[in-house]
Design goal:
Keywords: Cell inner membrane, Cell membrane, Membrane, Transmembrane, Transmembrane helix. It is built from 11 helices and 2 strands; from the N terminus they run E-E-H-H-H-H-H-H-H-H-H-H-H. It has 343 residues and is mainly alpha-helical. The longest helix has 48 residues.
């Protein structure tokens, strides 16, 4: 039989009693008979604070693939330019009026191409600015740098200047910015003032897109049409969220956003919904109560909502700290209530 541990009965004593001995917290020796050992607890302020390891910068290597595609693109542009030049020369040789018309078309095409390139560059620069603001704000939440936080707020105000719906929020933020001392509190204040109305609109956009996908895929007779509709709806949703948070993505910007959203989904668990949500939809028999087509539409709507939440994390200029992140379970309940009303 194992020996039962001996528990000392509660007793009162004075701190100046010679029988009371203050020991080290790491001392594991048993107290001698007739003495009372007091072990003070460790001070929380003296405990080691876990600090995230700094990210190791990725060493950029020389990319021969980029050189290849750049060279191919340059040769293609030179070939097109040479072909257009010969075409205009041939038109002038045949008729002066035809040459003038061809030259006008070439100038219009070159001007349109320059504008498109400028818009794409502006869109990529805008997305890069939003991404840097997100990273800078996350760093300020850790370092509590007041100067950097004020610089971030100035950049946010400049980013939100073109949105007329944020006029009152901008005025409130500018009025209270001088009263904030800590840098992290400044970021939280900016998030509450500027991001709250945008987050509400973003949730409405994601919920509407999920319900639209759920309805269309539930009544669609072809699986190929379902895939195409979900893809188009996802692209439209990502673009709407990027425009909402201040981005101006073009064609290249949308490719970059799609890559970041897919990478975010891969990091946070992929396209599958959370285990609790799957249990809610399938384990509790909710999908079984619906028809087969309605249940398939609900799952497609949930996947669209999951993609929209990932797009919010990618396109939002500030990380979620003072405001709650939209939850997939809340959107799922809204979607299920919508489906129950139609079923």
């Amino acid at each position: 039989m194992s020996e039962r541990p001996h528990h000392r009965r509660p007793a009162t004593f004075k701190l100046d009693d010679p029988a009371v001995i203050v020991t080290d917290p790491d001392d594991s020796s048993r107290p001698s008979r007739g003495t009372v050992h007091v072990r003070p607890e460790a001070d929380p302020s003296l405990l080691p604070v876990p600090v995230e390891a700094p990210l190791v910068p990725v060493q950029r290597r020389f990319r021969w693939g980029m050189v290849f595609w750049s060279a191919v693109g340059g040769l293609t542009l030179l070939g097109l330019g040479l072909g257009v030049t010969r075409l205009i020369e041939d038109l002038f040789a045949r008729s002066e009026s035809l040459g003038i018309v061809g030259l006008a078309f070439a100038i219009a095409a070159a001007l349109a191409l320059a504008i498109v390139i400028a818009r794409e560059a502006f869109g990529l620069a805008r997305l890069a600015t939003i991404e840097k603001l997100h990273l800078r704000a996350g760093a300020v939440l850790v370092s509590d740098d007041r100067t950097e936080s004020r610089a971030i707020v100035r950049d946010l105000l400049g980013l939100a200047h073109q949105n007329p719906h944020l006029a009152r929020a901008r005025a409130a933020l500018q009025g209270h910015a001088g009263d904030i001392i800590d840098g992290a509190d400044m970021i939280r204040l900016a998030e509450r003032e500027l991001m709250m109305p945008l987050d509400q609109e973003a949730r409405r956009l994601v919920s509407s897109a999920a319900q639209r996908v759920s309805i269309v895929t539930a009544v669609s007779p072809r699986a190929l049409f379902d895939v195409l509709f979900v893809f188009v709806a996802s692209l439209r949703l990502i673009r709407q969220l990027a425009l909402l948070y201040g981005g101006r993505p073009g064609a290249l910007g949308m490719l970059r956003l799609m890559r970041h959203v897919i990478a975010h989904l891969a990091i946070t668990g992929g396209m599958a919904a959370s285990d609790s949500l799957i249990q809610q939809v399938l384990g509790h028999g909710i999908a079984a109560k619906l028809s087969q087509r309605l249940g398939e539409g609900v799952l497609n709507g949930l996947l669209t909502a999951r993609l929209g939440l990932a797009a919010i994390d990618v396109t939002r200029p500030l990380p979620f700290t003072a405001l709650p992140r939209p939850a997939l379970a809340d959107l799922a309940r809204d979607l299920l209530r919508k489906r129950d009303g139609e079923g």
